[in-house]
Design a protein that fits this description.
By secondary structure, the chain is mainly alpha-helical. It is about 70% helix and about 0% strand. The chain has one domain. The longest helix is centred in the last third of the chain and has 25 residues. It starts with 9 loop residues before the first helix and ends with a helix.
Length: about 130
């Protein structure tokens, strides 16, 4: 019998997405690209927090970093969805970057939320 690679379910894929440090960094990059020129102070609060979340993840706190990423991605999505955008503005480069960032927010909320809810805190469990 040849060993077949196991396929991950959608929930397992989302959870593994939420446990990586790349998604918050990618979202911080997209937010910065949108709101740095011209400078908009309120949306520019999000990139440092998302980069700190990535730092937490690399420091070994994957569960906590996933929670921070899910929460701040959801907050940014709510902030960005307040602005209405016409069809003509959606096909510009800025509109595509906005759409990509909102899509990434949705995936981050789902994936990081799963990683946070079902994650384990090894340091806390080891001390019990």
């Amino acid at each position: 019998m040849a060993s077949e690679p196991t396929k991950q379910s959608v929930l397992q894929s989302l959870r593994s997405w939420g446990e990586h440090s790349v998604p918050p960094t990618l979202l911080a990059t997209l937010i910065t690209a949108q709101h740095l020129q011209p400078f908009q102070p309120l949306p520019m609060i999000f990139p440092p927090v998302l980069l700190f979340s990535s730092y937490l993840n690399l420091g070994g706190y994957q569960t906590d970093a996933a929670g921070v990423t899910a929460a701040w991605s959801g907050l940014y999505a709510l902030l960005a969805m307040r602005r209405k955008q016409g069809l003509k503005n959606k096909v510009t480069v800025r509109g595509v970057v906005r759409g990509a960032s909102l899509g990434l927010c949705a995936v981050n909320v789902a994936g990081c939320g799963l990683a946070y809810v079902f994650g384990r805190r090894e340091k806390e469990e080891a001390s019990k």
